[in-house]
Write a structure and sequence with these properties.
Chain lengths: 203, 203
DNA sequence: GCCCGGTCGTTTGGGTCCAAACAATATAGA
DNA sequence: TCTATATTGTTTGGACCCAAACGACCGGGC
């Protein structure tokens, strides 16, 4: 993992960061006093990590890839929340739940949880919040009373019809820096990551 | 977004899902009775979405990419939590915080929050949890008493020296399905997504 | 008909998550 | 020296997150 790292010194030729902070080993001779760029070169991060566990074989490509994956997911969620969801008092997860229930015209909670990639415990909480707000209803199954079925209300369907195009437009904004071929390739690679994670879970 | 979707009917030629559930418009004439594969073809999802907002121009490539991104990030976090972090009672975020403080030999809370991509409010809570467990200390700045500095304890450093190689090995497991060139390309594309999200935030 | 094993959703307990509001602190300018 | 503005971290309130435990329910086997 190479989680986004603090500012490095902008002084000419200086590669350490962040200096000027109390308590840091003083690798950097320059006091930090500028605005903070928020990105670190890979080389600097690898250097810092190697100082700690450099005697071990580390897979920097994997670390960098997973850290980028996590950051991109967070950035995407923040973007979609800020531009589309927050004004409707929705979180990413509550929107995903609404979306799944919407496109399949109702669904049982165990399947919604699976589709939304959240636990059933979480799904119970989220669906109760959405029920309280009037976006969906929860109904016990008639043939199997263990099951709870979710359906959008009229208000919920209207909300999704208005919201989903905006959400999708905001999704499209996130890939403007990529060619169509690059988008396809990234999506394929991400699926491989999911498959690898699931293989080790099941294995 | 095409969040992972529920099982579709496995009956020959049948493309609707998930049938057999109470409350669903009965598009599918087959009762569902098999184990549940957990993936839907893109075509089926697009068909379902188009039924709801098909009159609008939708960017399915963007939807699919962002949904894959979110799923991959969740799968990666679940994998790393299950295989490495949970036995040490650590969450993904608490680990990221420890890692950042570790590789930079101490850091101020505002920078740790930025590096870990979490808010300062969250960082306060997480760092207090880690302090309670003895992994790090929180110290008020001497020159600027608004600032709080985090440093790992001896136990915290020992924990990271033991844990990080295992964490990195688990990270490497996640990209076994990708060639080195594909990993590099995916990482580059993910960075583009982060940049696009940040451009619209600032703009 | 009864019992057992399994599944479902909920509850519990504790952790993370963030926006907004707040208190403490620092700094610049008059 | 005083005031105003800005920055920092914390608190508040509410939402989400999940493992584990639990109660309700279902279905198979005897």
């Amino acid at each position: 993992m190479t989680a986004a790292l603090p500012t490095y010194c902008t002084a000419e030729g200086c590669m350490w960061a962040p200096c000027g902070e109390t308590g840091l080993p003083s690798r950097c001779p320059h006091a930090y006093d500028g605005p903070m760029p928020d990105r670190h070169t890979l080389t600097e991060t690898e250097a810092a990590v190697s100082e700690h566990v450099g005697h071990l074989p580390l897979d920097f490509a994997a670390a960098h890839a997973i850290s980028s994956l996590y950051r991109a997911a967070n950035a995407a969620r923040a973007h979609l929340t800020t531009t589309v969801l927050r004004e409707h008092d929705l979180t990413w997860t509550s929107f995903v739940v609404l979306w799944v229930v919407w496109i399949w015209d109702g669904m049982e909670t165990r399947h919604v949880a699976e589709s939304a990639a959240i636990s059933k415990a979480t799904l119970t909480g989220v669906s109760k919040t959405l029920e309280q707000r009037g976006w969906l209803t929860r109904t016990t199954g008639e043939q199997d009373r263990r099951l709870v079925n979710l359906r959008l209300t009229d208000a919920g369907r209207t909300l999704m019809e208005e919201l989903y195009p905006k959400f999708n437009a905001a999704e499209a904004q996130l890939i403007t820096g990529l060619s169509p071929a690059a988008v396809t390739e990234m999506t394929t690679s991400l699926r491989r990551v999911v498959e690898a994670a699931e293989d080790t879970q099941t294995g």
